[in-house]
Amino acid sequence: YIHLMTTKRIFILNGHPGESSLSRKLAETYATAANNAGHEVRITHLHDLNFDSDFGQSGFSKTKPLEPDLEKSLEDLKWSEHVVMTTPMWWGGLPAKLKGLIDRTFLPGHAFEMESSKDGLPSPLLKGRSARVFVTSDTPNWFMCIVYKNALFWQIRKQIFGFVGIKPARVTHFSGAGHAKAGVLAHWIEQARNHGTSAT
Fold this sequence. Notes:
Layout (H helix, E strand, L loop, with lengths): L8 E6 L7 H15 L3 E6 L22 H12 L2 E7 L7 H10 L6 E5 L5 E3 L5 E8 L3 H6 L4 H11 L7 E7 L6 H17 L2
Parallel strand pairs: 1-2, 1-3, 3-6, 6-7
Antiparallel strand pairs: 4-5
């Protein structure tokens, strides 16, 4: 029989501010696999984006006009059905430029509505999308879980993506990234390739 695969529109954001990185390799591997599987792919590298990462205001009443690169990222996000983000963990959180992109683009009228929903929280505007986030760190999995309580994963899944309606948002953690051996890196790349092929 013929297997009819549902194609997806996938927006991939390499959230590492450096020009070359493991995050970039994971993002490009996912993109290639997804393309080869027939999915529509748009990929952006944070390093290439030019914008002021400082939100710089006390509220949403007077937000800065979006630079063209941010307008394009927001357009790609709205176009997508599945969002993929790759990022290192730096000082327990996201790189400043990546956090700045989120601060500047996840805005009322685009990502959520200020008017509360039934539970008293703002209403999400990006429902109907899923996400996969690849996080690299030197921190071992057990330490991330027991000592840090998976705080960054919670922030990504619930406080960022979940807040605007993107769910499920699944996190894949690659620990020991700074000193990973070639075989381990190859296994991680293969995981990204498999996720790209299946658009998960």
